[in-house]
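ok trying again, last paste got cut off:
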Amino acid sequence: MDFRATRAFQAIMIRPMAEDRSSMAIWQTNQRPVVMIRRERHSYGLKRRLAILIGLAGLSAYAIGLVAFIGALERIGSEPKSADAIVALTGGDARLDKAMSLLAERRGARLLITGVNNTVTRDELKRQIDGPRRVYACCVDLGRGASNTIENAVEAAAWVRRHNYRSIIVVTAAYHLPRSLMEFRAALPGVKLVGQPVFPRELDMGDWWQDRDAAWLLMSEYTKYLASWVRLNGLEPLGFRFHQGVEARIEYGGANPGDEPILSAEPKT
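nice, full thing came through this time. structure:
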């Protein structure tokens, strides 16, 4: 009798304790993923806030740099200077007119117009430019191998080395001048560069933020300027090259009868 009572008592007392342990184990098992999920959500939230802060800091730095870039453009002097020769980058008749006026004033001995389309003849180009026909016929060379600013610099470098010039005037739009000079310095180390800005009539840099087209143009040029800086100062020193196989194709004017009509240039290294 005593034995049966003891077994019954143990069954009554042990079963609830086992059930309690089982339920506690289930609770602990279910509780652990909840804690892990909360930690993951917290970590994700921190990473998201950090990414937002970094993005805002980057946008702020970009905006400050853009304002400084445009402010520097407004202070560029346009007083004509002199050099051994003149290089004009295509992209607007005002650039070519300015370059021709410098040549007519004998600010340089010769003029290279780099970036001329292969379908445009010498006579067609002359009709678009103001200036003495005699000066154009004798002293203007046309570069037909460049399609962007990097290739403009490579083409001009071949022309400069051909003539052993020690200084050149670079004629282009004011907003394009900082990037052009950066590329030309990389292609022509040791050659003195004189920037000659041209201010397009349709671009008002004083109220650029009120004109959507002007704002987009300046932002685009500033972004290209930053990209060129990173390429020249960060990527190319590491061995990356972005203009392999670029060669200059220069059509000379009549003042150099001994020169070949086509000049091949070595790629910039």
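cool. Confidence is low (pLDDT under 50) at residues 8-14, 16-30, 256-269. Residues 80-251 form a domain with the Rossmann fold fold (CATH 3.40.50).
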